[in-house]
């Protein structure tokens, strides 16, 4: 059984910084005291040099304090004023741990939905104002940041009559997350990625493929990878069932940027995974059959499925799905297609949803760590378990799912390129007692 310590010691960088950084408003301090130790644990466990650990924490502190993140994470006590879809409890922040290969190192990233003071009102019905302020601030502070593609999608995927959005919301249309930003803590320095989920007037749950194509073609009209995705969506029975969700871009020189188009699939069976990740047989790289075998073994290990689990069977229905309020989009697999300019075929990544489909966070970690160690990739597993312990100080890992939210996989250089996505459960009842006490002391 994998051992997870439930009372980890604070990270060295966090301990040093927290003694000297000045206090701010009660909400800012509450978010910093939650996210700071988490970030310190992540970068320390992933083997970042000490100077990069300090850099990561100072980026979090400075850009959460003076311009964007923490003031725009909203009030720190439940219920959230704006329910972000970044986490199941409405919290506006998520972490990710990109796993090392046998000879490499992990990379850490965190994503937020900035929450403005007027989010959900006629002044800011889609909660874009804080996002725009943040994007502008980062582009000013980090000269290598190029927001050309971000501004294009802000113009192309949304309408701009706030009064009509407000009228839709008054008529019962529920506003939800449509923009997010992530900070990638690369060893060479930070980079920033933006995500856009369309929300046009009268749109319904999904933007049509034709409208997506209009937005894409204005940037890159002759993209071969995107054309192959359209062919798959039109011709494959699995492709015809998929629904487009989101696009993400790297805020760097567009000639070097990636453009990732995210989709939802209603199926979770292995045959469906194979069909989508090969784009209906169009992608047939050397060794791909063995890579699929490894992927299916990993899914079985993480979700504790029997070895003989049929390739054509969908995952068992999530336990308690009706009373737990899982939306259908958050039960089954997601995928993205990398359709950056210059590609003949896209790269494809799968996102396995762990919260509705796993037993509990301890079991998920046990299966993942066991698979990684069996494949010579266990060097950072103990550190990852320490991170889980840091994130789970409000509850036991074996009592529920929710901290490990997704496990993403892409075939790259003959290996499984893996990323674990982690949620802090910011509004979990176990956190709220101490949070309210902190706020009262600051009032």
What's the structural blueprint in terms of helices and strands?
Elements: H1 12-18, H2 26-45, H3 50-67, E1 93-98, E2 107-112, H4 129-141, H5 148-156, H6 162-170, E3 179-186, E4 189-196, H7 209-217, H8 224-235, H9 237-241, E5 243-250, E6 259-264, H10 270-277, H11 288-303, H12 321-324, E7 334-338, E8 347-353, H13 361-374, H14 381-391, E9 404-412, E10 415-422, H15 429-442
Antiparallel strand pairs: 1-2, 1-10, 2-3, 3-4, 4-5, 5-6, 6-7, 7-8, 8-9, 9-10
Helix pairs in contact: 2-3, 2-14, 11-13
Number of helices: 15
How many DSSP-defined strands? 10
Helix share of residues?
A: 25-40%
Mean pLDDT: 89
Uncertain spans, ≥5 residues at pLDDT below 50? 65-70, 321-326, 435-443
Structural class: alpha+beta
Q: What's the order of the H and E elements?
A: HHHEEHHHEEHHHEEHHHEEHHEEH
* Amino- and carboxy-terminal Cα gap: 45 Å
Proportion of strand residues: 15-25%
Give the strand order, joined by hyphens, for the main sheet: 1-2-3-4-5-6-7-8-9-10
Shape designation: globular
**Largest beta sheet, briefly?**
10 strands, antiparallel, barrel
**CA-atom Rg in angstroms:** 21 Å
Region (Disordered): 1-22
Keywords: Transferase
Family: Belongs to the tryptophan dimethylallyltransferase family.
Pfam families: Trp_DMAT
Core attributes:
ten-stranded antiparallel barrel, 443 residues, disordered C terminus, alpha+beta, 38% helix, single chain
Explain what you see.
- There is one protein chain.
- The protein has 443 residues and is of the alpha+beta class.
- It contains 15 helices and ten strands.
- A hairpin with a 2-residue loop joins β9 (404-412) and β10 (415-422).
- The longest helix is centred in the N-terminal third of the chain and has 20 residues, at 26-45.
- It is globular, with a radius of gyration of 21 Å.
- Residues 65-70, 321-326 and 435-443 have low confidence and may be disordered.
- Residues 1-22 are annotated as: Disordered.
- It holds the Pfam family Trp_DMAT.
- Belongs to the tryptophan dimethylallyltransferase family.
- Keywords: Transferase.
């Amino acid at each position: 059984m994998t051992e997870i310590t439930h009372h980890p010691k604070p990270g060295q960088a966090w301990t040093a910084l927290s003694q000297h950084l000045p206090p701010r408003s009660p909400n800012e301090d509450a978010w910093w005291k939650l996210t700071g130790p988490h970030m310190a644990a992540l970068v320390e466990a992933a083997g970042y040099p000490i100077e990069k650990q300090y850099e990561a924490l100072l980026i979090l502190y400075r850009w959460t304090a003076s311009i964007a993140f923490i003031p725009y994470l909203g009030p720190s006590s439940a219920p959230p004023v704006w329910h972000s879809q970044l986490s199941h409890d409405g919290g506006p922040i998520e972490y990710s741990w990109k796993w090392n290969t046998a000879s490499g190192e992990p990379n850490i990233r965190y994503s937020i939905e900035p929450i403005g003071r007027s989010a959900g009102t006629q002044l800011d019905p889609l909660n874009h104002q804080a996002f725009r302020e943040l994007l502008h601030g980062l582009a000013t502070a980090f000269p290598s940041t190029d927001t050309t593609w971000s501004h294009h999608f802000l113009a192309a995927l949304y309408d701009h009559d706030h009064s009509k959005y407000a009228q839709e919301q008054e008529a019962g249309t529920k506003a939800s997350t449509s923009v997010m930003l992530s900070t990638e803590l690369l060893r060479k320095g930070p980079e920033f990625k933006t995500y856009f989920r369309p929300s046009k007037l009268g749109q319904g749950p999904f933007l049509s493929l034709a409208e997506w194509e209009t937005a894409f073609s204005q940037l890159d009209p002759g993209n071969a990878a995107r054309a192959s995705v359209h062919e798959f969506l039109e011709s494959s029975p699995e492709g015809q069932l998929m629904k487009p969700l989101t696009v993400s871009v790297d805020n760097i020189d567009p000639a070097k940027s990636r453009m990732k188009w995210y989709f939802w699939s209603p199926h979770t069976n292995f045959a469906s995974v194979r069909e989508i990740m090969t784009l209906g047989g169009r992608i047939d790289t050397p060794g791909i059959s063995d890579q699929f075998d490894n992927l299916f073994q990993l899914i079985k290990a993480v979700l504790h499925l029997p070895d003989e689990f049929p390739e054509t069977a969908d995952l068992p229905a999530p336990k308690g799905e009706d009373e737990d309020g899982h939306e259908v989009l958050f039960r089954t697999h997601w995928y993205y297609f990398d359709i950056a300019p210059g590609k003949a075929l896209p790269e494809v990544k799968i996102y396995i949803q762990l919260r509705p489909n796993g037993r509990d966070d301890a079991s998920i970690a046990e299966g993942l760590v066991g698979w990684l160690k069996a494949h010579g990739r266990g060097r950072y597993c103990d550190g990852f378990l320490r991170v889980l312990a840091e994130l789970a100080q409000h509850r036991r890992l074996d009592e529920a799912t929710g901290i490990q939210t997704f496990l993403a996989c892409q075939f790259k250089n003959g290996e499984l390129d893996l990323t674990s996505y982690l949620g802090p459960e910011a509004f979990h009842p176990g956190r709220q007692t101490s949070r309210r006490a902190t706020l009262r002391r600051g009032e």
